Predict the 3D structure of the following.
Amino acid sequence: MRIVLILAGFLLLLVGLISMVTPIPGSTFFIASGSALLICTSQRVANWVQRARTRHTRFNKTVIWLENKMGERLGAPMRRTRPTDQTDS
């Protein structure tokens, strides 16, 4: 089951990236949903995202924007990857 969820997460990310450069709406939803699904199913991905957010402030700001767009429940997996020194804003 875990493999299916990881594949679904990558598929959602791929659709989101493709829809960014095409007139298909919903790229933000697909990217955020795929990211959240991958973060929930893979601790390695969650650790990678947390390290990337610590090192790259622009990436961190983008993920915070996605957290806010996804709402309380769907944005929770992304909030778990916040850098440890960052407080809730």
About this structure: The CA atoms of residues 27 and 76 lie 19 Å apart. DSSP finds five helices and no strands in the chain. The longest helix spans residues 2-21. The radius of gyration is 13 Å.
